[in-house]
Design brief:
With about 475 residues, this protein is an alpha/beta fold. The protein has three domains: about 160 residues, 2-Layer Sandwich (Aconitase, domain 3); about 120 residues, Aconitase, Domain 2, CATH 3.40.1060; about 180 residues, Aconitase, domain 3, CATH 3.30.499. It has 16 helices and 19 strands. β3, α2 and β4 form a beta-alpha-beta unit. The radius of gyration is 21 Å and the shape is globular.
Length: about 475
């Protein structure tokens, strides 16, 4: 019987299946960050050791400061954050787990650094105590976030219990127009199917649009799959995937590489494989997208306007829209391009890779930001590459602040936040109330669109700025 890519990877990793249908999956790669101290505490209480240290890699990303990095951990001003970084060092050293921490050239946001190090490979099962682990599906891995108790379970057993998700296929067709990016594609898709449109599913992205995308563009799609309620997103590995991986530090080499590529080439869903759900999107018809509310599904083209809750008949949806508009301080009918912003953030595991920074730099070069704007590379390696290309000088000459790698203002748990009531144009993945700081108002958009907002001081159609 024809199989989906999900079927193939799942079956290859099932250890056993319980009577209720949940399966015990073997985990090929376990990724950790500072929040893992709870799991290590749980292991210590039960006198258990880490089962497979070589299959586990830790990154300092969520809480690390992105300024004054030269001071190291001792220079971190927040006592609690400094304690978490010390605990990560202690726990990984005691368990013989590799740590890419402050001062390490491989440090960065886990979902940026791991792929660029070749730690993410097709056909793998990958977990991390972070929902955006779905990012790694762009390379043909089955990757998903897990909770704190599950992190402890994986550390102790190298397995996790999980019910197999349904297979959903998102066929994206057509060439992207000028100024339109993969971020716009995924925002448009979530706006169509809703924040619960992928619940219980693994979304497989396919179609001519996906085939034409780089691996980094595919990562943006898979990263935000969870914003549609899905467990993960996944893309079949192809020649683009293999070209991205070849020669990376942890990728197979020589004869092993050739055998791996042969095996990876068999992972794609078979012709006629059954999908429980299917959806399509015409990417050629898209304009740059931007959110107006407090969910990624609240996205409209930059050429559009804030919707009117009164036009929605479903009571709960109407009430949610009204609450969102109240929080965001917006009135129905307001043109998106007329909404002013107080600051701009370019970063996060969604859009802080080298291609994202190049795209933003092309927009700002020769212009100057009129609102505070911050650029935070997704990894130390991305930062170094950008500096070799002179992107840092372009940003700084345009009035942008250039920082070190980390999650920064995306997550708002590290002291780098948007002030109450301020409106931020952000390349991150979530815009719920308080995500970027108490009372912060977040508009999600692509790196080029964020760059345009910084230059003009309001949400703007980057296509117009480009023509200008």
């Amino acid at each position: 019987m024809p199989q989906t890519m999900l079927d193939k990877i799942w079956q290859a990793h099932v250890v056993t299946t319980a009577e209720d249908g949940t399966s015990l999956l073997y985990i090929d790669r376990h990724l950790l960050h500072e929040g893992s101290f709870h799991a290590f505490d749980a292991l210590a209480r039960t006198a258990r050791a880490v089962r497979r240290p070589s299959r586990t890699i830790a990154f300092a990303d969520h809480y690390v400061p992105t300024v004054h990095r030269e001071r190291g951990i001792a220079g971190v001003e927040n006592d609690e954050i400094r304690r978490m970084l010390v605990l990560l060092e202690d726990n990984t050293r005691q368990s013989d787990i590799a740590l890419y921490g402050l001062g390490d050239p491989r440090q960065g946001i886990v979902h940026v650094s791991a792929p660029e190090q070749g730690l993410t490979l097709p056909g793998m099962t990958i977990v991390c105590g972070d929902s955006h682990t779905s990012t790694h599906g762009a390379l043909g891995a089955l990757a998903f976030g897990i909770g704190a108790s599950e992190v402890a379970h994986v550390l102790a057993t190298q397995t996790v219990w999980r019910r197999k998700p349904s297979a959903m296929r998102a066929a994206i067709e057509g060439a992207l127009g000028p100024g339109v990016t993969s971020k716009d594609v995924v925002l448009a898709l979530i706006a169509r199917i809703g924040a619960d449109g992928g619940i219980g599913c693994a979304i497989e992205y396919a179609g001519s649009t996906i085939a034409a995308m780089s691996v980094e563009e595919r990562m943006t799609l898979c990263n935000m799959s969870v914003e549609a309620g899905a467990l993960t997103g996944i893309v079949a590995p192809d020649s683009t995937t293999f070209a991205y991986l070849e020669g990376r530090p942890h990728a197979p080499r020589e004869a092993e590489w050739r055998r791996a590529v042969e095996a990876w080439s068999e992972l794609a869903s078979d012709a006629g494989a059954p999908f429980e759900r299917e959806t399509t999107l015409d990417a050629s018809a898209l304009a740059p997208m931007v959110t107006w509310g407090t969910s990624p599904e609240d996205a409209v083209p930059i050429t559009g306007a804030v919707p009117d809750p009164a036009s929605v008949s479903e009571p709960s949806r109407r009430a949610r829209m009204e609450r969102a508009l109240g929080y965001m301080g917006l009135a129905p009918g307001t043109r998106m391009s007329e909404i002013g912003v107080d600051r701009v953030f370019i970063g996060s595991c969604t859009n802080a890779r080298i291609e994202d920074l190049r795209a933003a730099a092309r927009v700002v070069e020769g212009r100057h930001a009129v609102v505070p704007a911050v650029v935070v590379p997704g990894s130390t390696a991305v930062k170094a590459q950008a500096e070799r290309e002179g992107l840092d000088r372009i940003f700084e000459a345009s009035g942008f602040e250039w920082r070190d790698a980390g999650c920064s203002m995306c997550v708002g748990m590290n002291g780098e936040v948007v002030a109450p009531g301020e409106r931020c144009a952000s390349t991150s993945n979530r815009n719920y109330e308080g995500r970027q700081g108490r009372g912060a108002r977040t508009h999600l958009l692509s790196p080029p669109s964020a760059a345009a907002a910084a230059i003009l001081g309001h949400l703007a159609d980057v296509r117009d700025l480009g023509r200008g």
